[in-house]
Write a structure and sequence with these properties.
Rossmann fold; Serine Threonine Protein Phosphatase 5, Tetratricopeptide repeat; 489 residues; single chain; 6-stranded parallel sheet; 3 domains
Amino acid sequence: MDKNSTKELTNKAFSLHSTGDYENAEKIYFEILKKEPTNDEVLNLLGLLKYQTNNLIEAEKFIKQSIKHKKSIYYYENLAVIYVKQEFWEKAIEIIKEAILIDDGSFILWFNLGLAYKGIFQFEKAEKAYLKAIKLNPNSEKANFNLAALYLLLNNTQGAIKYYNKVLKINPDDRESKYFLSLAYFREKNYEKGFKYFEERLCRETAIKTQEVTYPKLTLKSKLWQGEPIVNKTIYIYYEAGFGDVIMFSRYLKELQTKCKKIIFKPQQELAEWFKENFPNIEVMEIFKDEKEISFDIHAPILSLPYLLGRNNQNIFSPTYKYLEANKLKAEFYKQKYFNNSKMKIGIKWQGNTFYETGRVIDIEAFNDLFSLSNVQLYSCQTYEGSEELKKLEGKNIIDISKTFNNFSDTAAAVENMDLVICNDTSLAHVAGALGKPCIILLPYQYNWRWHLDINKCDWYDSVKLYKKDRNENWKELMNRVINTELKQ
């Protein structure tokens, strides 16, 4: 086959390939390779076709053959992308290292090297690779975003802020960067800068849309509150995110009462009874029970309240002391049935909702050393997911009180009788904090924004202490630190 014929067939196949006619393009590529089995260009194109049709094994095979016949940086880039797609991080690193010895000027190679090093948790090397990629292409949105995300992961908030702002210069409408930028500011306790970006959060949008589709779609008939005066208006406030978030942000409801005529509040159903007990002058809804009857002038999701109320860096956390109460009759019932002893009463929980974060789950065996303390009675508050782990403490002196919890009113009544709560970053910690009960939260090395960079003090709750795992520390070692510091008698 002469060069002109090969070129003509290659162009025809590539044209078919480009329009998505992969079957006929592939036939022509193979026709060429029968005559010219070392045609690196066609081998590479066939590899790309296989990649696009999700046949990654074949894609790797053909592109490796193309590299064998010609050390083209473009071919190396394609092979690296195939490995990254499969999360074959070590293979990606190996092939990229080989390529940059030939030519270190490929943005794609350095960017994928950053992804690969991050994939195997070699964060310093990932940072260097991303920085090299950005040097080669300063206006790459994805490189700046990935470096910012890496810095946020490593609690380097200044780095995260710098590079998220770079992304927003490139693409001012990037909502994801705005949201993560808000978390970086929050971690530094700069809520004034973070608030407006926090309004881009996905759960806010989801919460609003959820209200729009529930009967009778009243939020479509009223305005979303933007912070304007509402002294003569009825406002509808509704939940978003998790139980702990709603408990934490319910601290702002009493201030909101002074700004409007009436509040209608819809929390998650599990929280409704407890909030009814605490806010007698607020119409607290139970899901799907009252929606036909309500009417209001304006609405907002609960996590927007501090922003809409004009809270600043000085008063964002207020009140930090006890701002919710337990039901007195229920608390007395729990006292008589479960807590009528002279021991130190410690409630524990090791797992919350793992849909978003699994790093917060504590190994239940880490609680074993608490049983060696004298005059201590432990209570399991672990409900639902994770409760099956309790069998690992079988034979230990622990009372499983979680089975008595029908809702958070019950949980609060039980916690009111405890001397201390030790738990992971979960809703139970917010219950204890809102009640002003002593609580120790055990945090993973990479922890949630709300606990800030300086964890020597819990800014949200005066009664809560924070203990964070060191990078190479396990949960048992962290628990021993807690015991030696807080509980040794």
